[in-house]
Amino acid sequence: PLEGQRHCCSIAQLHEHYSLGYPDLDELQKNPQPLIFDIEVLKVEAPGSYQQDPWAMTDEEKLQAVPLIHKEGNELYRQGKVQEAAAKYYDAIACLKNLQMKEQPGSPDWIELDQKITPLLLNYCQCKLQCEEYYEVLDHCSSILNKYEDNVKAYFKRGKAHAAVWNVAEAQADFAKVLALDPSLRPIVSKELRSLEARLREKDAEDKIRFKGIFSQ
Predict the structure, then answer these.
(1) Would you call 159 exposed, middle or buried from its count of C-beta atoms within 10 A (0-12, 13-18, 19+)?
(2) Which of 10, 20, 38, 161 is geometrically suited to a Cys-Cys bond with 137, CB 3.0 to 4.6 A?
């Protein structure tokens, strides 16, 4: 930037400082000439395959797009493309959140939209669990449980996230809540608890070796 330059449009910049700050643009202003643009085609999409960004959609288009985006996210997840699936779930959530902002919190329409957001958010959390982004899972699952205290999937995913970051008591409490709400999940919960206990034993053994080396010096 030129000395004393401030943010403004190019014409105002040129008027005040007799320069746009770039010699080639200054030359173009002095000697205007036709510009030729080379455009490279990167890919050709099939008719009807293009999806608008959520911000560019009408409210009706957002509602129609959500089931399709959700389906695409599920297919990507089944293919093992977890990051791409998370992005799809995020787009679907963004569409619904945008609509929800226009409703009064707690109203029937707001609640209906929130109930559509919840399964998408749980799918998103599942992706984040696999990406080892545990604190994001904790935040989102807690936000769900603040509104829906009986959501088993939110307790289970939050329990796995707590276990991953060594919040042992919190993980055990969440898994206990899962069993209280759905006893049929005992085999799955027992497996998670056994895994947590095994990791704790490994960690204790590693800590003993580490601290033994420290105190022996």
Answers:
(1) buried
(2) 161
d(CA 13, CA 128): 47
Question: Tokens for 53?
Answer: 């960004």
In the chain, which residue ranges form alpha helices assigned H by DSSP? 10-17, 23-30, 59-78, 82-100, 108-130, 134-147, 152-164, 168-181, 186-215
Residue that the structure tokens 């959520």 belong to: 54
8 A C-beta contact, residue 59 and residue 99: yes
What are the tens digits of pLDDT across the range 164-189? 999 999 999 999 999 999 999 999 99
Using a cut of 0.85, tell me whether the model's pTM lies above it: no
Residue with structure tokens 């008027």? Answer: 15
Closest to 73 (Cα-Cα) out of 126, 118, 10, 30: 126
> For 125-159, how does the pLDDT look when each residue is reduced to its tens digit (9 = 90+)?
999 999 999 999 999 999 999 999 999 999 999 99
Q: Is 183 helix (H, G, I), strand (E, B) or coil?
A: helix
